[in-house]
Amino acid sequence: xxxxxxxxxxxxxxxxxxxxxxxxxxxxxxxxxxxxxxxxxxxxxxxxxxxxxxxxxxxxxxxxxxxxxxxxxxxxxxxxxxxxxxxxxxxxxxxxxxxxxxxxxxxxxxxxxxxxxxxxxxxxxxxxxxxxxxxxxxxxxxxxxxxxxxxxxxxxxxxxxxxxxxxxxxxxxxxxxxxxxxxxxxxxxxxxxxxxxxxxxxxxxxxxxxxxxxxxxxxxxxxxxxxxxxxxxxxxxxxxxxxxxxxxxxxxxxxxxxxxxxxxxxxxxxxxxxxxxxxxxxxxxxxxxxxxxxxxxxxxxxxxxxxxxxxxxxxxxxxxxxxxxxxxxxxxxxxxxxxxxxxxxxxxxxxxxxxxxxxxxxxxxxxxxxxxxxxxxxxxxxxxxxxxxxxxxxxxxxxxxxxxxxxxxxxxxxxxxxxxxxxxxxxxxxxxxxxxxxxxxxxxxxxxxxxxxxxxxxxxxxxxxxxxxxxxxxxxxxxxxxxxxxxxxxxxxxxxxxxxxxxxxxxxx
Length: 509
Description:
alpha/beta; six-stranded mixed β-sheet
């Protein structure tokens, strides 16, 4: 059978070789996984296939014919759609406009708004995106934005779309949303669509893909059917060595209460929320998309307006947190879900990104004239977290996603924070970086830190946490101690408010 896409001896270099003699083939109607550590060359490879980068040498063949796209538009014209990890959405446009941007319905010389809404709603329903098609993309959550990106990639007519490339398609999605997407992909593949599926979620790759290729240091080191592989095989191929199992390290006895949230309510939380987190404890926050997980961390950190209630830090004296500056001053750290929009200072050095939250410790206003000290502190932290870089003067934008996330951890380690709020801390990072982050969190816990962590991956929460609190429709639905929970219990609690509202609606009718 002629491959849908054949990649032969592809090479690409920037300052150093990124792809080296890469060859792989994607069969018609198959889902082909592509995995590898951050920096292995995955993004470069799919950017070449989708017309965003030229190859230095090698060839591409599409349905047996020579294929060498010079732009994203040319790739689209050949039937190749891409849903990128670093999203290509335009914040000032509506959801509908973003979804159909490549093929806006026209009426005479204007956009046909009625057809625009009608067609976009069909695509939104396919990916279970429940927002107004007329909402501005800037107003959406990260998970909603990811679903817009997927709907946009699926907007090409089925008869025209030959190859769909998905880069970390479930990184911001909950398990039910990911399951729905996987069912859709399986359905489309059965109809003849070929799919390249790039993900760090190895269980997803093994469950949804027919075949998988592993990139390591710019080379394909394994291509095989997924039916004969396990996650351990992929990890070994990606890293070239066995990694330690991600088992929970025995925790020290939890200490006194460090963070106390009392009857916190706001526009986001009409019903008051209370919780506690002890020193030496990791508390997970689970729930569906839209349950209020991120909003809860923001409210605790002092972002936005707080209607009532208290956030208290207990130490030598009890302190009320009413703003981010007060939170940071008293030992609280916050790593937001969207590292590019809410964490990193793009275009700036690693040194600046690492030390910005702790300038007071570097000499306050004098830090600007003490660059040597800034560089020394940054270099020490980068080495401690094993950040792969050219040094503290390197631009943050040139790091892989996993290394960028480590830089955010370095930033807050420099402040000696002992209360950590973490929103999807391993989103879009490879297995090696993920385990490194988990180990760092356990070290912080064992040193007495109090940690609140939001994650869409239940497996991550059950591996890390001492307790898990479940939100449902912006209310606390359940709280489980280690040993009490199961995946079924956590999901049942996450859906509980929706079940209650349905039963009330049934009773009222």
